Amino acid sequence: MIRRQIVLLRRAKQILRTEGVMSLLKRALEFFGVFQYGTWYLYETAPSRLLKGKAEAEVMPKIQDFTFRIVSTNQQADELVADGLEFRSQVTKSREKLEKGAVALCIFVEQELAHISWLAMTEEAKKIVDPLPYKVDFANSEACIGGAWTNPKYRRMGLMEYGVYKRRQFQLERGLGIARGSIATRNVPSAGVAAKVGSNMYAEAHYLRILWWKRWKEKPLAQDNGFG
Fold this sequence. Notes:
Strands 2-3-4-5-6-1-7-8 form an eight-stranded mixed β-sheet, sandwiched between helices. It has helices spanning 2-19, 21-31, 48-51, 74-82, 94-99, 123-129, 159-174, 188-196; strands at 35-45, 66-71, 103-109, 112-120, 143-150, 179-184, 200-210, 213-220. It folds into two domains: 1-32; 38-220, Aminopeptidase (3-Layer(aba) Sandwich). The protein is 35% helix and 29% strand. Helix 1 (2-19) packs antiparallel against helix 2 (21-31). By secondary structure, the chain is of the alpha+beta class.
């Protein structure tokens, strides 16, 4: 419990420093389930889009001595911690996400968590990885992407693109098809990476939630949208 509070405090300080008081207040209201409002791009990616004709060496991060790990159980997460790698101390709700069946794809630089993203393969896992109410057809081997984060120390080094490459390898190995996700319209860097790796932006969505009242609206976008 104390460790989780420390993680949340660190994140709050980072948001306050980089985004300001109003952004911190908005996120606090969202965290406590009081209020949420925003606009998102919805995107889809086929696992073969980035892999076809491209070698792993072409998407290697601009950094030395990194380690890629796939974490699918709490036992594996505890083993990482026992080996001295950051995980529990930097990832909120990690135990719950893994218990629900989500998979974490992590990049570590030495012992420090440099990048993480989550892949949900069931509706139950999606609710915690990305609770926005867009549809994912899990019955037909679709998956949900969410919770991507890059340590500010290692941004603009290609970690996210490499993480996407490794995730699509994992999707192919598991027989998964299209993966769907959301990117806040204000998140220009992530949208840029999505375009670079061949994702297709298919809708713009607006979401408003006040306590138990919710309103969700999707607006389809033209297929020629710069996301491949």
